[in-house]
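User: Run a structure prediction on this.
Assistant: Running it now.
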Amino acid sequence: MVTRRGLLCLCLGILSMVTGCYVDPPPSHYFPYAGVDMDPETSPGHSDGQGIDYERQMDEQEQQYRRQRSLQERAPEPTYREWEREQERVRDPRQGG
């Protein structure tokens, strides 16, 4: 019985110390994005029209990239074409070689 009471007092003492060691959070200059409004409707870049040109430019670059990538995917690589020819020769030995 004495051990339980001793353990209870010890735990209560530790708990009271832990809650007494409160530290204020650091100042907001440690968090540079704390004051930034990320809502597109209320952000200053959208309300006065400055961000629209940037968005258009990004859209054009994305479209250009997609066109270029599409052309690259349509044209098979030379090494792949050579491999296909080699496979055809293996399947049909009459085709040269």
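The helical segments are 2-20, 44-47, 50-74, 78-91.
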